[in-house]
Amino acid sequence: MRRSFKDSKLMRPSPFSILLAALVLTAVVCAQSNSPAPKQASGAPDTPIAGPQSSNPSKPGTLDQTPASGTAKAASSPETKEKEDAKDAKEPTTAEEPQQPKTVILDSSATSSGVLATDGHDPILDSPPLPDGKTTLVGGVVRDVDHVRNRMTVAVFGGGRWKVGFDERTHIFRNGAETTQLAIKKGERIYVDTMLDKSRHEVFARNIRVGVSAIPADADGQIVDVDPKRQTLLLRDQIGASPVHFSVNSETRIIHGTRAASLSDVTPGSLVHVQFSPDRPNQGLAREITIVAAPGSTFTFVGKLTFLDMHRGLLALQNVLDDKNYEIHFNPARTDLKDDLAVGTEVRIVAVFDGPKYTAQTIVLTKPAE
To answer: Which CATH number fits domain 136-210: 2.40.50.320, 1.10.3720.10, 3.10.310.40, 2.40.50.140?
Structure first.
């Protein structure tokens, strides 16, 4: 196929394109000859990292394992290696060492050369000493008890409620045997040796006696009222100003003189002697009732006069039969011995008890006063 002159003219390169290609080629060759040394990857440290060095020198034809900073690092000499090892030993390690247990003495005054210098009390492990001061015996009934906080509320005989604290220093007894605080229950009758704990600002129990039966008590007086339905008595005591209530049950023993009696024999105005168990203030359970004198009873008294009032018609006699002193009323106008009566005179008197008082029926002189 024959080309035309026109086509051969279009395929011939122009001088301008040849010049441009030469310039580009020259620029590429210059850039390659003047390129800088290769840099490390981003994030790598500029200084070498200390690490274990191989004891064997690099062999020909193998790569050096030591890090380089831009250029190849020469093999270290023995002196340089020893310096680097000493430097690495002086540098502190970044890893935290585990903490070792330590013994700390909080109160240095309590010990001396490892031995307690006090009376043997450990301020940390031992209980605090008992409070100083006197103890007071208190009896009552437990109304509330808290075994967690070691507190109890006691309704004290005689009135009032006390909050009492206790702990491992407290000695708790039941029927004479020592027990634990679990023996303290609501409704129990207890007797407590109390002390004032100033450090805690409370009443502290040194000893607690649980379940102790009430100590029997005695009362002498005159019966004011009797309630057979409720089986109760009201007694005007010779000592106390307020009357005392007593309850009677099937186990109560009633005696009149030398014979057994019943509650119907106890009448208002009778003089009685009562043995009872205190239950609460001014109240108790009568165990034994002895009728000393019932209204209308006649009594004989023998003894020495200890008091005499002729104007009022009143005398006092120390009775030798029971070694008690009795007040006896008499009528001076009807007494023939009014001139012979004096303090110290020994007499025999027959009197009638009419309820409020003894009234003399006859007075016989047995021995004049000295």
So the answer is: 2.40.50.320
8 A C-beta contact, residue 162 and residue 140? yes
Percent of the chain having pLDDT more than 90?
18
Q: Among the CATH numbers 3.10.100.10, 3.65.10.10, 3.10.129.10, 2.40.50.320, which is that of 217-293?
A: 2.40.50.320
217-293 and 297-367: identical CATH topology: yes
Top-confidence range, 81-95, 203-217, 332-346: 332-346
- Domain 297-367 is classified in which CATH homologous superfamily? Copper binding periplasmic protein CusF (2.40.50.320)
What pLDDT is recorded for position 84? 65
190-233 pLDDT, tens digit each = 899 998 888 778 899 999 998 766 566 788 888 889 998 888 88
**Domain-by-domain residue ranges, the chain?**
136-210, 217-293, 297-367
237-293 pLDDT tens trace: 876 667 888 888 888 899 988 888 888 889 888 889 888 876 555 567 888 999 988
Res 5: pLDDT: 47
Q: What does the pLDDT read at residue 136?
A: 86
Higher pLDDT, 212 or 134: 134
